Amino acid sequence: MKADTVGAITPAVLVALAPGEKILAAHEIMLHMDGAVKVSRKTMKQLGVSRAHLMGMHARGDAEENYFFAEFEGPGNVTFSRDKGGEVRVVHLAPGQTVRLRSGHLVCFDESVRYFPMVLAHWVVQRGNDQENHYVFADELTGPGTIVFQSYGNILSFTLGPTEAIRTSPESLLLTAPSNGVQVNWLASPGMVAGGNLEPVLDVRGPGAIMVHSGV
Amino acid sequence: MELETLKGVVPAVLATLAPQESVYCEHGIMLYKDPTVTVGRKTVQSGGMFGSIKRTTVGGIPFFLSEFTGPGSVAFSRDGVGEIRDIELAPNEVLDIAEGSLLCAENRIPYDMLYVKGTNRVGRMLGFWMDRLTGPGKIALHGYGNIISMTLAAQEKITADYGALLYKSGSVEAKSLNLPFGGGLLGKLEAYEVLELIGPGKVALQSIDPKKEHT
């Protein structure tokens, strides 16, 4: 897959496909495609994700994973857009290299990339007698192959050393290497008395690459 | 008339008018104007009473356009993140512009509308309207997000998302269709509702669907 970014404010992704080359993309983010490009459906089951796992994801909350991807087959050009401002990154994954990308940001990926949806973080908020469960869902993507994703706002990239850690808001975490540990902690809001409002934060501990984004 | 783009994340266009020179635009998109610029109303006359009711109540096209007459400057903005294109239409050149994207046009440019039929599928039953402008004259339009431009050869086809079309030449045919998403019933139920654009002519796409942005 040859992917280029078009524009800067609300970037689109232009993918040039060779004859017979296939990519997968989230459903309904296509902007345009050449007449020669074919579209079909790829189910999660075909990608090796069991129905039980997917049902469990959806039962847990607002998982954005669909039950299928759109498959585009070349020759020709296809463009995609997530209709939001931000940055597009094209990342080439080496064989066996894995990244965990926040759900809802994947634009497209090579057919050779292994896809697996997962829960990256989970916390519970007590509201009176009720408990609210909150999740950060992620797409785990393993090479070889190219993946394309979009942030909301700008991307800040770091590489954490062993035991080095950064703290982010749950909404800011965009991508993490699987070697990073992700732990939910609680931070007292400024000015709050003890026992007042506590905000969940994510402590990400290295070693590994991490990206956070400035929008939500 | 001189057109100048005031660049930025949410850009605006500044039209500088000579005495008695006029531009028209959709009502409610003026940002500011010089006190010397007068404002009037331009009635849209096309399709009779039923045509007017259909395009205004269903299509969202206004009953009236605003007309600004110089001397002086007037600025327009679509209140959205994107890019502005100033286009000089050649004599008899026809351009169809997505509803809600025209910023302003010289008064000598005739204004008309084009209806693109829907697919008769629930949600797209009624199709949509485009502004049809015929040159010569200058126009400015706002593309939501970034603009991708291309020129289609005769009979060359592309498939585009409904909200992606920003403008096309009058010679480019736009047809709504359901693009099956794989086989079986699910493929039909989840079919893409798309536009097939057939050349020859110019096509520009925008990377944000303005209807999605505002929902």
How would you describe what is shown here?
The complex is a heterodimer of chains A (216) and B (215). Chain A contains one helix and 19 strands. By secondary structure, chain A is mainly beta. A six-stranded antiparallel β-sheet of chain A has the order 5-6-3-10-13-8, with no helix packed on it. Chain A has a six-stranded antiparallel β-sheet with strand order 11-12-9-16-19-14, covered by helices on one side. In chain A, strands 1-2-7-4 form a four-stranded antiparallel β-sheet, with no helix packed on it. In chain A, strand 11 and strand 12 (130-142) form a beta hairpin. The longest helix of chain A is centred in the N-terminal third of the chain and has 10 residues, at 51-60. Chain A is globular, with a radius of gyration of 18 Å. The two termini of chain A are 28 Å apart. The model of chain A has no long low-confidence stretch (mean pLDDT 89). Chain B has a single domain (2-213), classed as Mitochondrial biogenesis AIM24 (Double-stranded beta-helix), CATH 3.60.160.10. Helices cover 10% and strands 53% of the residues of chain B. Chain B has helices at 48-58, 184-189, 210-213, and strands spanning 2-6, 12-17, 22-26, 30-33, 38-43, 64-69, 72-77, 82-89, 94-98, 102-106, 111-116, 128-134, 137-144, 147-152, 157-161, 165-169, 173-179, 192-198, 201-206. Chain B has a six-stranded antiparallel β-sheet with strand order 5-6-3-10-13-8, with no helix packed on it. In chain B, 38% of the residues are buried. Classes of the chains: A mainly beta (216), B mainly beta (215). The A-B interface holds A 6-12, 14, 27-28, 30-35, 37, 39-41, 68, 70-71, 79, 81, 83-85 and B 9, 81-83, 144-148, 156-161, 164, 179-183, 186-187, 190, 192, 194, 205, 207-209, 212-213.
